[in-house]
Design brief:
Strand content: 15-25%
Order of helices and strands: HHHHEHEHEHHEEHEHEHEHEHEHEE
Number of strands: 12
Structural class: alpha/beta
CATH architecture of the largest domain: 3-Layer(aba) Sandwich
CATH class of the largest domain: Alpha Beta
Number of helices: 14
CATH topology of the largest domain: Rossmann fold
Largest sheet: 6 strands, parallel
Number of domains: 3
Length: about 325
């Protein structure tokens, strides 16, 4: 593979002429452009992206940090980000924080050194619990774009993509009540997150607004448990309920599976709604009723907002929060 200087020497033209021809500059004749492009192909010339990035101070690369790549929600968000970014000529670099502040901060530090143009991040559990956002401040100090999604914070002034978690749970609980369900259990494995508390609040508010007193005995917290199956089995043996609402996709699938195993006679009687998507709902039996967060669209919107910010000439435009519409699917 030849360099730009070597290619110019081979063609007996200036380095500037070769560069302009390869970028379709108007002041270079069509015959010259054709000759230079054919030679570049013949000698397998590839532009040095690092050198170009240093020259124009732009890499066309987005850094993405997520807490858990094995979570189907984050996997679909990443798909949406990558797909939209590609259509706009941007590459993506993905890091996983594994719910740890230190890993999240290190990922940001490394990508700042690697010269990404901006970041899309969903904050780790530890970052949110400690309320430590110094690494996010560094993004702003380095004049890089930032979009937070799903797990966000009001402490950082940047663009965000969220859903109305409280309203989603409120509306889902209201559907169960409309089906004459009065003993509605709540199960969650994300009560250590702000979104988990918002969802629980939506569930409780819907009950109160419809004249049903929330029963603490019907609220099952699986957060951080090393034996969630045992907790669910104990819950089934101690409580009577006619519906279940889950704050996350993991606990809803676990709960449904254990009900089928431990109390199959309840499978057809208990109505369950969880956070999920069409694919996972189809994989479960009975088919899961679910709140669709539109994960892929969240990814697309986050990438759209970041790229729009990166390419905008208006540096005074205030940060925006986009509220992604959710859908509730009842089988």
């Amino acid at each position: 593979m030849v360099t730009l200087k070597e290619l110019a020497k081979q063609l007996n033209v200036s380095v500037s002429t070769v560069s302009k021809a390869l970028h379709d500059a108007k002041d270079i004749g069509e015959d010259t452009k054709k000759r230079i492009k054919e030679a570049a192909e013949l000698y397998n010339y590839r532009p040095n992206k690092t050198a170009l990035a240093l020259k124009v101070n732009k890499t066309n690369t987005i850094g993405v940090v997520v807490p858990d790549i094995l979570n189907p929600f984050f996997a679909k968000v990443l798909h949406g980000i990558e797909e939209f970014a590609t259509t706009k000529g941007y590459d993506t670099i993905i890091c996983v924080s594994h719910e740890q502040l230190k890993k999240e901060a290190k990922s940001v530090e490394l990508m700042l050194q690697g010269r990404v143009d901006g970041f899309i991040i969903s904050l780790s559990t530890e970052t949110l619990s400690r309320e430590d956002f110094v690494h996010l401040d560094q993004i702003s100090l380095n004049k890089k774009g930032l979009v937070l999604f799903d797990r966000t914070t009001s402490e950082i002034d940047c663009d965000k993509v969220v859903i109305n978690d409280q309203k989603a749970m409120y509306d889902a609980t209201r559907i169960l009540i409309s089906k004459k369900k009065t003993k509605i259990a709540f199960v969650s494995s994300i009560e250590d997150l702000p979104i988990g508390l918002l969802r629980k609040g939506g569930y409780q508010k819907a009950l109160i607004d419809h004249g049903i007193e929330p029963d603490p005995n019907l609220e099952l917290d699986l957060t951080g448990s090393s034996q969630p199956h045992s907790l669910i089995k104990a819950f089934l043996s101690l409580n009577e309920f006619d519906a279940v609402i889950s704050a996350d996709n993991t606990s809803s699938l676990m709960f449904q599976s254990i009900v089928k195993s431990e109390k199959p006679e309840l499978t057809d009687d208990i109505m369950l709604i969880g956070f999920s998507d069409e694919k996972n709902a189809l994989l479960s039996y009975p088919r899961l009723n679910y709140i669709d967060q539109k994960a892929m669209k969240i990814g697309e919107k986050a990438a759209e907002m970041l790229i729009s910010r990166l390419e905008s000439k208006d540096s005074t435009e205030k940060p925006k929060t986009f509220d992604m519409p959710f859908e509730i699917h009842i089988a």
